[in-house]
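Morning. Coffee machine broken again, so started the prediction first thing and wrote up yesterday's gels while waiting. Chain of 819 residues, entered below exactly as on the submission form.
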Amino acid sequence: MNTFQIIILIGLTGNAVIGMLVWASNPARRLNRYFLLTTFLIIAWLLGLFIITIQESVVSVTFWSRQVSATASLLPLGFFILRLVVLQPYIRLSQLCYKLRYLFVAVTVVVALCQTDFFLSTAYFSNQTETIPIVDYGAGLALYILFFVLTAVGMVFSIFDIFKNTQGVQRTEGQFLLLGWLFGFSFGVFLFAFSNLSGSPEAARFLPLFPLVMNSFVAYGIATHRILSVSVVLQRLTAFILMTIYLASLYLVTVWLADRLFYMVVEETSNLSHLLAALVVAFSVIPAQGLMKNFSSRLFFASKSFDIDQMLEETRHIFQEVSSEDKLLADFSSLVIQTFKTPRVVLLRIDPDGVYRQRYVFPEQESSVLLEPHIGLIKLLKRDHQPFTIDTLERMRSSRLIDGARKELNSIGAAVAVGSFAHKKLETVILLFPKSTGAIFDAREQRALQILSDQLAVALENSSLYTAVQDGKLYNETLLDSMASGLVAVDENHQITVFNQRAQAITGLSFEHVVNHSVTMLPGAMVTAIEAILQTGSGFRDKDMTIPVGTGQVPIRVSGSVFHSHTGKTIGALLVFSDMTLLRKMEDQIRRTDRLSSIGTLSAGMAHEIKNPLVTIKTFTELLPNQYSDDEFRNTFFDLVGQEVQRIDAIVNRLLNFARPANVSLKPVLFHDVVKNSLRLMEQQLTKYGIKLEESLVASHHLVMADADQLNQAFVNLFLNAIQAMESGGVLSVTTTQLRSKIRLDIRDTGCGLSEEQRKHIFDPFFTTKEEGVGLGLSISYGIIQEHEGVVDVESEKGQGAVFHVEFPLIDEREVVNG
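Came back before lunch.
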């Protein structure tokens, strides 16, 4: 098999493969079918060439040479058939034949001409080594060449027809058709003319390659789903050719120079020269690629209308600014319109029901687009994760999904649909409408659109997070500012991060003066509390303190807690505090009211208690004048009157102690010491009544602010009450417990207990369950405990004993030291 036969077989195989691939890509499309028809014409011509190469007699070589020439005249017919189908995609065969009737007549004439001696008299191989026969043409060759010249002129004029009557993908298909045939036809005519004019028929051996070049261009324009524009293809092709020429020249020059340089050193320079040339070419590939790309871009100015680098730079500026979703969609639409020259953009966002509803459109329109999740277009976008143009769908093999997507896109009037995915979920559908210039959205632009859409998904997610954060911030600020208590939060760097309106009102400090500043901007007592939380890692509850505000002091009640990270590290502290000024005033008022309301009870009780000794004194005083001489009466009178006066004096003193308790002198006192001292005073009473004492003073912290004498009096009264409730003996249990910032004293007896009614009035003045009692002891204790900001309560059931619970606020030993 000779070289010419190999070239023919390459052409045959290549064209057959291209034709079948184009047809298989969409068998239902007329343009694909007619392309296969033109491929058969080319294959027929190539088969004729191959048959010539295996002929031996002059007659057979002449015959087949005429048939090859006749078949070649059919090739331009294929161009004009494809051109008509591009212009009218749904043209019928009868209409096609009618429109090309004159061309059919001309081709018939040329085919007939090729069968005569007027065109070709003889063809033969001069020797067995020749691969191309020697052909003797007659005068009819001029007519044959004229036919091809006229068809070439017709191809050139068809450029205007294609640009005038088509747009979008039809125009692009026509451009590739024209480009392929001009390249291939020019190549074929050049080889044919050169072989005949130069007298060297061997040059014609490369003729089988021209239809392969031609079909490659046309096939790309017809069958490629995502097609590039002609200018971009030419730009890349030019860059490739220029780069090949540049590198080949560089290789040859390097070899030539190296031969002369290495000649001085070694005899055989060939290997070293080629090695050096290969290295030079290898290191020059990347710089040459960039150089040739820039050069070819300048040659084809149209291809620069879309600059992906500039688009990405503008996109970066838009998406770097985190803003609302509406502004983001507006900026994105403006960028798309400016970059891709589309007149309208529609953006649809998925709603909770899975329906894609129109979220933004530019320019605005009355009608609204809505896409259901089950339609073909949505399913296709979800399946392939890439853009789809109406042209792409036309070129794809027909299926229910493809056909449905094409109809839906056509019904909307859009040219491109792009999906924007977040976490592999289709969140946004972007619709672009046909360009006003009639140009297509080529493969580069589709890839750029997908890049933009992917970035839009990230930007929309960031926008949603930003909106959620802003809403959460507003919600938290509203929530914090509506709190009745002040709130301060501090981070691990001792910087104040939260300071609500109530905190500002209580402390008199402004938000700007405090937030993002050091904790030392707060009042000293609060600073100490926060520092203690951060150092110890533990909080506290209901701690009373005072802070300076203006020229005075404001009492506050504070609770503190600590923030921990997921690793357990302390990351901040929180103080919640309330202004106790009004509460303290109300407490004082309630105490005064209670005391005043007790005056009536005191008066009644005092009248009852004093009346009895007064009656006795009055009786003896009335009898005194008559029985003064009676020594026994006088002695009895003096003893009795003295006792009754002392009784009245004791009652009055107790009353005074209750009504006007002595001013307390508060200072740090160890609570357990006071309790133990009170219990020592009760030792005789405990022994007298046979009562067992169980003492458990276990509170770890028991420092309180108190007047020890007053507190001792209160505890003695409580202990006496418990002892007197156990006349038959029993157990007196005294325990202490620490409750956060308080200490609790529990006094438990095993006596007779109290009824519900008795328990309600146990602290009322002159209320007593004992025959000899006056009923002021527990009332006095209650008042003393209140003066110490303490709380007292009782739990009891009849016959089950009683428990008195007394709570006092604790103070921090560090405060005493600092004080």
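The mean pLDDT is 81. Going to sketch it on the whiteboard this afternoon.
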